[in-house]
């Protein structure tokens, strides 16, 4: 198979799910092109991510051997009470990384020519084993497969399954990152090397160290990553998500957009509700940001030569720490299925779908159960659809 006779995948979405698909499909000899809506480099979406084996398996399959360490290890899980006392401690080792660390590692192995920023998919059609994708501005591309890696509000999915949309889970995640050295010695001694929690009444904060913005994992150059889950009634969401620019966003308020008065209110709440070390972390955060917690699950992932992966297909709650792992598992299994030559492509895709659907459904339901328990919400209904 030479370079031009190789099958071609059009990948819509250039975040983690899209790049995972790109590196694994390239590893089986496919040509890949990644079309990303954002015209800018996606290198500052930062938040912490628990590094799961599925990501490492996909990297290994793709031949991505990162020269350094990909994350920061933690050993114990500790729970603090509101007074700051450790009330529970247990050995549960894991590694924490960050969005920009994973993104940067994958981006570095993809040729620039594969990546097409500023391209907004509008629609597609398929015929004769080919997919034609239409982008804003009139660009049209044809491929053997279209991978919808365009996230929870996927355009690809909305064309295929217009009745399926994310549903608000009843609470939000406030998040922030603080340079390691901003905490003083006693606080650092308490939190270094552990994955720390505070379980409050209907709220939960968790915290762990992640690499620095430059990917550094050496002590002193890392960042404290915190996530604070808090209930917010649905009618208050437009105000919550209104930024400094006066615009209310649908699902999140990015770093830098939280108005000063609301940042002050967040810090006051932290002082009132959180263990002192966590309240100090929230207070030291320059640009706190907030994301809605949502549920989404699709009934199908394969539609002829179009597939859905990552958050476009399932949005498990972050308590599973598994969304990126799921995107990696989707991508790796897709490449392995397409590498087979014993059955037609359509059959390989259907076989791929069976296991991915089962895994996504299981993870999504599990996340809802955890969320209901930690937030005191009795929400056992299956993943939601609108209409
Ligand atoms: C509070 C919180 C904590 C989390 N913690 C973890 C964790 O610990 N571990 C973990 O694994 N995951 C975590 N996640 C989830 C994780 O960030 C995502 O699951 C992961 O990045 C995979 O996302 P994705 O690439 O499928 O979608 P996204 O990251 O949403 O990317 C979709 C991309 O598609 C682009 N796009 C959208 N529409 C179009 C279009 N029409 N044309 C072209 N491009 C388009 C977007 O610009 C975007 O870049 C967390 C999420 C939240 C909210």
Written description of the protein model:
The chain is an alpha+beta fold and 387 residues long. It folds into 2 domains: 186 residues, FAD/NAD(P)-binding domain, CATH 3.50.50.60; 153 residues, D-Amino Acid Oxidase, Chain A, domain 2 (2-Layer Sandwich), CATH 3.30.9. It is 31% helix and 30% strand. The strands form 3 sheets. Strands 3, 4, 5, 11, 12, 13, 14, 15, 16 and 19 form a 10-stranded mixed β-sheet that branches. A 6-stranded mixed β-sheet has the order 6-2-1-10-18-17. Helix 1 packs across helix 2, helix 1 packs parallel to helix 9 and helix 9 runs antiparallel to helix 10. It starts with 7 loop residues before the first strand and ends in a 12-residue tail after the last helix. It binds flavin-adenine dinucleotide (FAD). The site of flavin-adenine dinucleotide has 36 residues, from helix 1, strand 2, strand 3, strand 11 and helix 9. Flavin-adenine dinucleotide binds next to helix 1, strand 2, strand 3, strand 11 and helix 9.
């Amino acid at each position: 198979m030479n370079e031009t006779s190789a099958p071609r995948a059009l990948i819509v979405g250039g975040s983690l799910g899209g790049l995972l698909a790109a590196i694994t499909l390239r590893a089986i000899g496919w040509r890949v092109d990644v079309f990303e809506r954002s015209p800018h480099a996606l290198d500052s979406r930062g938040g912490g991510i628990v590094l799961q084996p599925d990501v490492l398996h996909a990297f290994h399959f793709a031949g991505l051997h990162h020269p350094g360490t990909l994350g920061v290890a933690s050993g114990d899980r500790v729970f603090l009470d509101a007074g700051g006392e450790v009330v529970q401690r247990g050995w549960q080792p894991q590694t924490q990384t960050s969005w920009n660390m994973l993104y940067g590692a994958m981006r570095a192995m993809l040729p620039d020519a594969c990546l097409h920023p500023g391209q907004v998919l509008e629609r597609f059609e398929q015929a004769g084993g080919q997919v034609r994708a239409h982008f804003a501005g009139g660009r049209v591309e044809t491929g053997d497969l279209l991978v919808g890696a365009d996230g929870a509000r996927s355009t690809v999915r909305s064309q295929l399954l217009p009745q399926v949309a994310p549903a608000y889970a009843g609470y939000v995640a406030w998040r922030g990152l603080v340079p390691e050295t901003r905490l003083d010695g006693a606080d650092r001694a308490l939190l270094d090397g552990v994955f720390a929690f505070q379980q409050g009444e209907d709220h939960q904060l968790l915290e762990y160290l992640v690499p620095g913005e430059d990917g550094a994992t050496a002590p002193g150059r890392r960042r404290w990553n915190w996530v604070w889950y808090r209930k917010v009634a649905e009618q208050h969401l437009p105000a919550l998500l209104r930024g400094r620019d006066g615009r209310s966003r649908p699902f999140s308020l990015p770093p830098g957009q939280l108005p000063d008065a609301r940042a002050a209110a967040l810090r006051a709440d932290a002082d009132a509700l959180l263990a002192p070390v966590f309240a100090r972390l929230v207070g030291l955060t320059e640009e706190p940001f907030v994301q809605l917690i949502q549920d989404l699950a699709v009934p199908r992932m394969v539609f002829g030569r179009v597939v859905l992966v990552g958050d476009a297909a399932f949005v498990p709650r972050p308590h599973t720490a598994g969304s990126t792992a799921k995107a990696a598992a989707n991508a790796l299994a897709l490449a392995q299925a397409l590498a087979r030559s014993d059955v037609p492509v359509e059959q390989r895709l259907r076989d791929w779908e069976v296991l991915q659907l089962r895994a996504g459904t299981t993870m999504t339901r599990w996340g809802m159960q955890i969320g209901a328990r930690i937030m005191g919400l009795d929400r056992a209904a299956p993943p939601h659809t609108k209409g």
